[in-house]
Amino acid sequence: MLTVRAPATSANLGSGFDVFGVALSHPADVVRVERADRTTIEVTGAGSQYIPEDPEKNTVGAVAEALDAPARIKIDKGIRPASGLGSSAASAAAAAVALNELYDRGKTRKELVPIAAKGEAVVSGDAHDDNVAPSILGGFTIATPDGVTQVDASVPLVACLPEIVVSTRDARRVVPTETSVDQLVETVGNAATLTTGMHRDDPELIGRGMEDTVVTPARAKLIDGYSEVRQAALDAGSTGVTISGAGPAILAVCPEHDRKHVASAMLDAFEAEGVDARAYQTRIGQGATVHHP
C-alpha cells in the first residue's frame, strides 16, 4: 500500500483566471492505493456522503484509467467538496502521484498534471490545470496550454470557508464573455505584479496583484457577505483579498503577524451576516507527498 497527501489549493488568485494557482499547507486529502485487478473506491471524511464511489464518476477513477493502473483506492477527504479549495483536484493529484509510483509508470510530476486534470474534469466538466498543478508541484504555478511554470513561495494566507455551496459549473456560468481593453490592460498589470510578488515572497505585491475587475465581481454575487468579509480582512491587515477558485472560500494574503487577526475578522464578518464559517490559517506550501508503509 502507498499513501499520498495532496494539499488544498487556491486557483485564479483574482487576476490569473484559469492560469494561477497556489498549494496550501493545509487542509489536504489523503489517498491510499493498493494494486488490484480492477479499480474500487472508498471515500471517507469531509463531504464524503456526496462523493460517488463509482470509478466512472469519481476523479480518481479517471486517473487510474488514464495510467492503466487499477487499484483499491481509499480517499480520506480533508477538503470539503464545492469549497473553492480544489477538493476534486487534490484527490486526483494524490491518485496520479500514488498510482504513478505504485505501477512505476515513470512520469514526471509535470507530466502527471494533465492526467490529474482529466480526473478533475469528471466533476467540473472541463480539464483545467490551475488546481491540480499546485497540488502536485507545490508553490505558485502558472498553467498555460504550453505547460506549467512553478515558483517556490512561502507566503501567509487565510482561507475562510463559509457554509455556502457554490458549484464550479454555476460559477462558470456567471463569468463575463467580453471585457474592455482597459480591463485587459489592468488585469495584465495586476497579474505581472502578483507574479513578481511570488518570486519575492512579498505579501504587499501579491495583494495588489490579486485585484480583478472582470471575473471576481461577477462571482462575488454568489457568496453571501463577500463584500463585508473582504473589507473586514483588509481592515485587519490583509494586503489583498479575492475569491478562492470558484468559491465560496475567500482567500486573504497577509503578513505573518496579522494572520490571526485577519482570520478572526473574516469569521466575525460572516457571523454578522448570519453565515457559519471556518478559517484556515495557512500558507503557500509544498505539493503532494508520498508516504511509504
TrEMBL record:
Residues in GHMP kinase C-terminal domain copies: 198-270
UniProt-listed HAMAP family: Homoser_kinase (MF_00384)
From the UniProt record, list the reaction(s) this protein catalyses. L-homoserine + ATP = O-phospho-L-homoserine + ADP + H(+)
Q: What does this protein do?
A: Catalyzes the ATP-dependent phosphorylation of L-homoserine to L-homoserine phosphate.
Known EC number = 2.7.1.39
GHMP kinase N-terminal domain location is: 60-139
The entry's ATP-binding residues are 80-90
Which pathway is this protein assigned to? Amino-acid biosynthesis; L-threonine biosynthesis; L-threonine from L-aspartate: step 4/5
Q: Which Gene3D superfamilies match?
A: 3.30.230.10, GHMP kinase, C-terminal domain
What organism does the UniProt record list as the source?
Answer: Halapricum salinum
Q: Family assignment? A: Belongs to the GHMP kinase family. Homoserine kinase subfamily.
Q: Does the keyword Transmembrane apply?
A: no
Hydrolase as a keyword of this entry, yes or no, is no
Keyword annotations of the record: Amino-acid biosynthesis, ATP-binding, Cytoplasm, Kinase, Nucleotide-binding, Threonine biosynthesis, Transferase
Per UniProt, subcellular location reads as:
Cytoplasm
| Principal location | cytoplasm
**Family matches, as SUPFAM superfamilies:** GHMP Kinase, C-terminal domain, Ribosomal protein S5 domain 2-like
GO biological process per UniProt? threonine biosynthetic process
The protein here is known as Homoserine kinase
Name a GO molecular-function annotation.
Answer: ATP binding
Q: Name one GO cellular component term.
A: cytoplasm
Question: What InterPro entries does its record include?
Answer: GHMP_kinase_C_dom (IPR013750), GHMP_kinase_C_sf (IPR036554), GHMP_kinase_N_dom (IPR006204), Homoserine_kinase (IPR000870), Ribosomal_Su5_D2-typ_SF (IPR020568), Ribsml_uS5_D2-typ_fold_subgr (IPR014721)
